[in-house]
Write a structure and sequence with these properties.
Layout (H helix, E strand, L loop, with lengths): L2 H9 L5 H20 L12 E6 L2 E6 L12 E6 L7 E6 L10 E13 L6 E6 L23 E4 L5 E6 L1 H9 L7 E5 L8 E6 L10 E7 L2 E4 L10 E2 L5 E6 L7 E7 L8 E9 L5 E6 L8 E9 L10 H6 L8 E7 L7 H28 L1
Parallel strand pairs: 13-19
Antiparallel strand pairs: 1-11, 2-4, 3-10, 4-9, 5-8, 5-10, 5-11, 6-7, 6-9, 12-14, 14-17, 15-16, 15-18, 18-19
Helix pairs in contact: 2-5
Length: about 375
């Protein structure tokens, strides 16, 4: 027998099996512990929805051609000229989505792209229209009545570009029902100037991408509750068996809705439960989801609402909705925190199991090396 091999064997003192198992178990626990901990609580809340709308009708009104309709024109003009005989006004209207009437409008902006602007700066007023009109028949002579007080004013830019008029108060009134949505007329604040001052805006019929748009940001009355009675708003769920009880108010009773729940996956939130064709009885939209049903991830969850028809169905990924809310007709969005303790978080369990198996593999590898030396 090789004497050197005998010395090596004699000098080795392999750790007892129990000690090796303990070391492997500690290693597994260290790897798995971070995966099994609940994610830090983050406060849930109503999430603001931003919708960007295209014009449903637009035209312009020429005082010098009082019976001419320009509903199919690719531009619409605002003029001040000719001693009061050759002024022109632009007119535009947007169909609003079925936003719940109890929503809070944060901002609303009417954006018109000026393709040609006057050499001298002019101030333009936006007035809320108070009577019906139609794109194919409206003329200077048949123009609708409008509020005598301007909603907002803005000076013309020095070069071609967007003019963004703040119309938050009007849109809020349209949604709550305190005013009827007939759109706006845009006019020079000082009409009848001796020199013609003219601005041309692209219309919806223009081939350019810079068409009229109305951007509305709001929060809907859509909240999560801790009990089926839906009396106490609750934004955090920590107990296995909890349900998220959702309630929305002032929703339209003539529309049915799709509701989807998305988990807290950091890669963008995945759909865990869709609920289709839900009615809002008496204007109240109710939904609930048992959090421990299904494969889900803890974190900040979302419950979102869309009309049942007219839009693409909600996708599997929450971030996809946020990137294109108009494609999916997003109407309401609420977030709430779900701790790992409230759900059988299978991805986390699988990760922990993988860590244990990895540690076991290290143990057997170490053991094999010891006996090879021996």
């Amino acid at each position: 027998m090789d004497k050197k091999r005998i010395k090596v064997r004699a000098g080795l003192k392999p750790a007892p099996t129990a000690r090796r198992i303990l070391i492997a178990a500690c290693l597994a626990a260290a790897l798995a512990a971070p995966l099994l901990q609940p994610l830090p609580a983050r406060a849930g809340m109503n999430v603001a929805v931003t919708r960007t709308l295209s014009a449903s009708a637009d035209s312009w009104l020429e005082e010098g051609s009082q019976n001419t309709n320009y509903g199919s024109s690719t531009t619409m003009s605002v003029w001040s000229a000719g001693g009061g005989t050759k002024n022109a006004r632009a007119i535009v209207w947007f169909t609003l989505p079925a936003i719940p009437t109890g929503s809070t409008v944060t901002t609303a902006t009417l954006s018109l792209y000026a393709s040609a602007v006057p050499a001298s700066t002019r101030t333009y007023d936006v007035h809320r229209i108070t009577a019906t009109w139609a794109e194919g028949t409206v003329t200077w002579r048949l123009q609708p009545a409008f509020n005598s007080t301007a909603t907002t004013s803005l000076t013309t830019p020095g070069t071609a570009g967007w003019m963004n008029f703040t119309v938050t108060s009007d849109v809020s009134a349209f949604i709550t029902g305190s005013a009827t949505n007939y759109g706006w007329v845009i006019k020079d604040q000082t009409e009848g100037s001796g020199t013609q001052y003219r601005t041309d805006y692209y219309t919806e019929e223009n081939a350019s991408a810079n068409k009229p748009k109305l951007t509305v940001t709001y929060t809907a009355p859509w909240d999560s509750y801790t009990t089926s009675g839906r009396t106490v708003v609750g934004d955090t769920y920590t107990t296995l068996g909890d349900s998220a009880w959702m309630k929305g108010t002032t929703f339209s009773t003539s529309t049915t809705y799709n509701i989807s729940y998305y988990d807290g996956d950091v890669s963008g939130g995945f759909m865990v439960f869709p609920q289709d064709n839900v009615t809002a009885a008496g204007g109240t939209l109710n939904s609930d989801y048992l959090l421990d049903s299904g494969n889900a991830v803890a974190g900040l969850w979302h419950a979102v609402v869309q009309p049942n028809t007219g839009f693409s169905v909600f996708p599997n990924n929450y971030d996809t909705i946020i990137a294109a809310p108009d494609t999916y007709g997003l109407l309401a969005n609420d977030s709430f925190n779900v701790a790992a303790s409230a759900i059988p978080e299978l991805p986390t369990v699988f990760s922990a199991l993988a860590a244990v198996l990895f540690s076991a593999g290290i143990y057997w590898w170490m053991r094999r090396r010891v006996y090879r030396v021996c």
